[in-house]
């Protein structure tokens, strides 16, 4: 239940849910819950995204299908959404999803093992936190989502793929890229949510089917516990989406930058004092 709440609170904020699950899992005596648990519980938070953006997603899918079947003309440009902004958005989401799919498959073994080292996590929390702050301060904050192009969509996707490393943050990386390209805070956040749906759902269900019938690793949550955490992540995640979009409409990302840097320092201290171990496990003190 604790990990489900942690997943929901941190998935959409630019502070890295995978890092928090990695850290909190050890601190509550459950060891590293693992990449599979992280990916599966993200199904819950992404289901919250689908519910929140249901009308937007419906319009994107409907317009994409209409353009694809030739309602606006039989030419290639028309089928790729030349006359429908929502149809273009569908293709941009597909294009932006390619980097994380390719890198996720190529680096799968590292993602599930060495990249979960807490020294790496602490470094990523600090570095990408400062990068987010710099992007928020220097970005033009002018472009809306109708300014998307294939190149910008791919840039968003490359930034999202950095979140394969715990500590980077899927939303944080994507939002940072959007701010650097001149998008408004709200536009960057909304696109980060939409872009994450195919990647997170795909990763979650891949890990879910892969783990069916297998016993979880020692210290990892059981199937029932993972299901419980996923359900909690869905409910709490829906509330967090509403709060974040309202918050960033009138505030900067400074509070998240400070939080990331402070958390990185705390993790380093806990590692140096032996409370946490870099590759998993927790010392009872």
Task: Return Rg in Å.
Answer: 19 Å
Give the low-pLDDT segments.
Answer: 281-285
List the quaternary state of the chains: single chain
DSSP helix fraction:
over 70%
Strand portion: under 5%
SS field, number of helical segments: 13
The coarse overall form would be: globular
Mean pLDDT: 90
Q: Biggest β-sheet, characterized?
A: none
Intertermini distance: 23 Å
SS-based class: mainly alpha
Order of helices and strands: HHHHHHHHHHHHH
For the record, the count of structural domains works out to 1
Q: In total, how many beta strands?
A: 0
Could you please describe the fold and organization of this structure?
- With 285 residues, this protein is mainly alpha-helical.
- The protein has one domain.
- 71% of the residues lie in helices and 0% in strands.
- The longest helix has 27 residues.
- The chain starts with a helix and ends in a 13-residue tail after the last helix.
- The C terminus is likely disordered.
Task: Please describe the topology of this protein.
Blueprint: H1 2-11, H2 17-27, H3 34-52, H4 54-68, H5 76-79, H6 85-106, H7 108-111, H8 118-138, H9 150-161, H10 170-180, H11 185-211, H12 223-248, H13 254-272
Helix pairs in contact: 1-2, 1-3, 1-12, 3-11, 3-12, 4-6, 6-9, 6-11, 8-10, 8-13, 9-10, 10-11
